[in-house]
Phytanoyl-CoA dioxygenase PhyH
Amino acid sequence: MGKILDRDQIRFYKENGYLEAEDIFDVALLDETLRHFNLSFVQQLERRNLAVEPGATLDALHKNMATLLGADVQLYLATLRMCSKLYGVYRLMTEERLRSAVEDLGVTTPLFQTTPVLHLMSRQLVIPGGYQGFDVHQDWTSVQGSLDTVTTWIPFMDIDANLFTMEVVPGSHLKGLASGVQEENIFRVDEKHFSEGDFEPVRVRKGGVCLMSNFTVHRSSRKGDDRMRISVSGRYENASEASFVEREYPFTQSKSLHRGFITENFPSQQRVQDVFQVK
């Protein structure tokens, strides 16, 4: 028996390649992070003198996001990217109970190659010419690190089968790496490896997490109503997994730095001094 997961849960994960684990996070942390998401969009709406939906509820956030998207697609995307970097998102990924649960699954020396990814699904927030969700894929191709890497999928609300949830193919991880086609955002798994009846919807309550093998075949469900689904995913890789050590720690992802000034003639001396004024 592990620190967080019991024997039955660990066995279920090993046999099925995923596990819905409840009561991992304090819901107050999730709510605080949602409030920070909303604040980020409200700041931009007020700056543009656009209508702001009052309150700090999920419904208010949804409406404020839709307003900004309708006014300025690029600003909407910039705000969404910023939200994925907020402290609350990183705190979720490093929550001690989450780390312990992943350790129960064998990740003894955790490392993060990737930053957390913010996932958003809503019929009101479809970017013109863009896409929402991911087609059938495995996460392994995006990291190619340890064989026991665990994907952590953390929703900010109760998830049901009608809320654009994630759908998995139980046991598909045991077949290893599937063939497919490299597309812009994913390595799409060939249809010969699955059928429509194979997929099971993930139902995680707020405060829980779906833990999933990097080899589990999965996709975003297109089944949803007018609600918005927000979730965060990350990868717990294992620095002590034998093949990762043997391959001398390969990484698919690297950091890049923008050299030079993003905003010309900024900041002025006065703007800097204003930050440090005693009030």
